[in-house]
Structure formats: C-alpha cells, structure tokens
Amino acid sequence: ERERERERERERGATMADSWLWLATIVVLFAVAASIDDKCAACNAVAEELERGLANEKPRNHLDLRNRLDSKGQRQGKVIDYRVSELRVVELLDGLCEKMQDYTLLKTASETQEWIRIQNWDNLTINKQEAKAHSKHISSYCGSWRS
C-alpha cells in the first residue's frame, strides 16, 4: 500500500514536471519573438515550424526508464509517455534555429510584415541581400537563447 502511494506521488511529480517543461518551452519561444521587429509574425513563423515538426514526427513508444531491480527481481523505475516527455521537446527544438534560416520578412499588400518560408532562394523576386539579412536575424537570435 505504501509503495503504491509513493508511486502515485512520483507520477504526480512527473506530471507537474512535464507541465513546467512545456510552460518553459512556450516562454522561450515567445522570447524569440520579443527581439524581432514584427513579434506576432515571428511568433507565428516559429509556431508554424514547430507544427511542421509535430506533423512530421514519427510515432514513438513510451520511454522505459525501469533500469533498477528490486529485492524480488522486479524492474523499478518509470515508463513515460513519449508525447509528454522531455526528450520530445528537445527533439522538436533541436535544429529549430537552423530551420528558421529558411524564413524571411516580407511586406504584404496591406503594408504589414509577415515571416514567410522560402522554398528556393534562387527564385526570390525581392532584394535577396535584405531577405538573407532578415533570415540571419531571426536565426541568430534563436541561437542566442538556445546557448
């Protein structure tokens, strides 16, 4: 009975840690947008890239962290659902800054600015030098908070 209670407490602690981890991730992503000229558009571009990462994600098994044996020979530890694991967050954020190099700031018809993903830099009709500068700006800022 006591062992079950301890296990429930560990699970509650893991759930709370997962919640804090996701909250921290969101705060960091908003920090990326904070130093960019058009914050909403930059935030949308980062969110778009994260959504692309989620859509391309392969299904994964639970993470089995049961690597100890108790006195009865039973494995001790936790099995964590990959969807709420720290590993998933790390893998989603890994390479995010490099992927942001594919984005540049573009003025739309309504004179607002929007971060767009460039498929082919050679076919770009706007000033390529300026577009590359915008691309480096968002990517280098992204790298500054990841370090």
Structure keywords:
CNPY; 147 residues; elongated; DUF3456 domain-containing protein; 12% strand; DUF3456; alpha+beta; 6 strands; two-stranded antiparallel ribbon
General shape: elongated
- Please list the strands of the largest sheet in the order they lie side by side: 1-4
What amount of the residues lies in strands? 5-15%
Unreliable residue runs: none
Number of domains: 1
Main beta-sheet annotation: 2 strands, antiparallel
Count of DSSP H/I helices: 5
Q: Helical amount among residues, as a percent range?
A: 55-70%
What structural class results from the helix and strand content? alpha+beta
Pfam families: DUF3456
Keywords: Membrane, Transmembrane, Transmembrane helix
InterPro entries: CNPY (IPR042415), DUF3456 (IPR021852)
Organism: Opuntia streptacantha
Structural description of this entry:
By secondary structure, the protein is α+β, with helices and mostly antiparallel strands. The protein has one domain (2-57, 94-146). It has 5 helices and 6 strands; from the N terminus they run H-H-E-E-E-E-H-H-E-E-H. The chain has helices at residues 2-34, 39-55, 86-93, 96-99, 128-146; strands at residues 63-64, 68-69, 75-76, 79-80, 103-107, 113-117. Strands 1-4 form a two-stranded antiparallel sheet. Helix 1 (2-34) packs across helix 2.
